[in-house]
């Protein structure tokens, strides 16, 4: 639905006030995402998509579900921006392939050793030098594979299912179990990677600011962020492979649109 059509469909009183109050939230999320996107992505496109997400949030928000409007709107806005980015995947197929190889290497090493896979071990497993491995991480910084929101496949599905009285209880519990497992996986990241994730996604610092906190270069922060996302995907692979049958067709459809 276009932004104009969506706006016309929302008849809630005070909509203009809601949009006006949260327009800054749209811009904040857009600029935060821009920090790890290539230069050909236009900030105006993200903001426009985010405004559509804000309108969707205003139309669908139910305060009885417990989440504040700003929390719910933030999820919708970010999801709308990601949908816009999905329309053109600028990342070469080779980058996706190498990213999958790294995640698989991490999973194999951690299954064998019972501890976090180290940079040098992953590089050796892949037959790469350490500098080549770091370059793979650097190249993949803007790849959608590493998006924390993408790991949750848009992030708002749990809220949607909880708000939908027709959603099967088992499916809702499974979604909640996934969220808990993801939280545990984040908590189990190496300290530096966990700190990068926290500063980026919770404190909403940009990569340069995180580098200043950690005392490392911005490019090193990019590598740590990419490595953290790969490690999370490797550790959550069992959940992704064992998705509920009802959720599989929709997820496959979304993935097919990204190829």
Automatic annotation (TrEMBL):
Residue span(s) of domain RNA polymerase sigma-70: 45-58, 206-232
Keywords in alphabetical order: Cytoplasm, DNA-binding, Sigma factor, Transcription, Transcription regulation
Membrane keyword on record: no
PROSITE patterns cross-referenced by the UniProt entry: SIGMA70_1, SIGMA70_2
GO biological process terms held by the UniProt record: DNA-templated transcription initiation
Short sequence motif named Interaction with polymerase core subunit RpoC, residue ranges: 45-48
GO cellular component, one term: cytoplasm
DNA-binding region: 207-226
Segments for region (Sigma-70 factor domain-4): 185-233
Xref: Gene3D superfamilies: 1.10.1740.10, 1.20.140.160
Residue span of region Sigma-70 factor domain-2: 18-90
Subcellular compartments: Cytoplasm
GO molecular function, one term: DNA binding
Pfam families linked: Sigma70_r2 (PF04542), Sigma70_r3 (PF04539), Sigma70_r4 (PF04545)
InterPro entries xref list: RNA_pol_sigma-70_dom, RNA_pol_sigma70, RNA_pol_sigma70_r2, RNA_pol_sigma70_r3, RNA_pol_sigma70_r4, RNA_pol_sigma_FliA_WhiG, RNA_pol_sigma_r2, RNA_pol_sigma_r3/r4-like
Keyword set includes Cytoplasm: yes
Main location as per UniProt: cytoplasm
HAMAP family: Sigma70_FliA (MF_00962)
Function, as annotated: Sigma factors are initiation factors that promote the attachment of RNA polymerase to specific initiation sites and are then released. This sigma factor controls the expression of flagella-related genes.
Family statement drawn from the similarity comment of this UniProt entry: Belongs to the sigma-70 factor family. FliA subfamily.
Protein name in UniProt: RNA polymerase sigma factor FliA
């Amino acid at each position: 639905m276009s932004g104009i059509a969506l706006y016309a469909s929302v008849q809630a009183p005070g909509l203009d006030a809601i949009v006006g109050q949260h327009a800054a939230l749209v811009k904040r999320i857009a600029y935060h995402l821009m920090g790890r996107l290539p230069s050909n992505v236009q900030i105006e496109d993200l903001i426009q998509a985010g405004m559509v997400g804000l309108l969707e949030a205003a139309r669908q928000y139910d305060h009885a579900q417990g989440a504040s409007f700003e929390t719910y709107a933030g999820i919708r806005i970010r999801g709308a921006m990601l949908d816009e980015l999905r329309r053109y995947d600028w990342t070469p197929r080779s980058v996706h392939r190498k990213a999958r190889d790294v995640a698989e290497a991490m999973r194999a090493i951690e299954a064998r050793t019972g501890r976090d896979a180290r940079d040098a071990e992953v590089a050796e497993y892949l037959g790469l030098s350490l500098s080549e491995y770091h370059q793979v991480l650097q190249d993949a910084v803007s790849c959608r594979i590493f998006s924390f929101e993408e790991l949750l496949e848009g992030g708002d599905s749990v809220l949607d299912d909880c708000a939908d009285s027709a959603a099967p209880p088992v499916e809702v519990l499974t979604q909640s179990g996934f969220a808990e497992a993801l939280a545990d996986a984040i908590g189990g990241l190496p300290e530096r990677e966990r700190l990068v994730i926290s500063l980026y996604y919770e404190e909403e610092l940009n990569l340069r600011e995180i580098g200043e906190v950690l005392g490392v270069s911005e490019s090193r922060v990019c590598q740590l962020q990419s490595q953290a996302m790969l490690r999370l995907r490797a550790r959550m692979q069992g959940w992704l492979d064992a998705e509920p049958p009802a959720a599989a067709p929709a997820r496959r459809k979304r993935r097919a649109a990204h190829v």
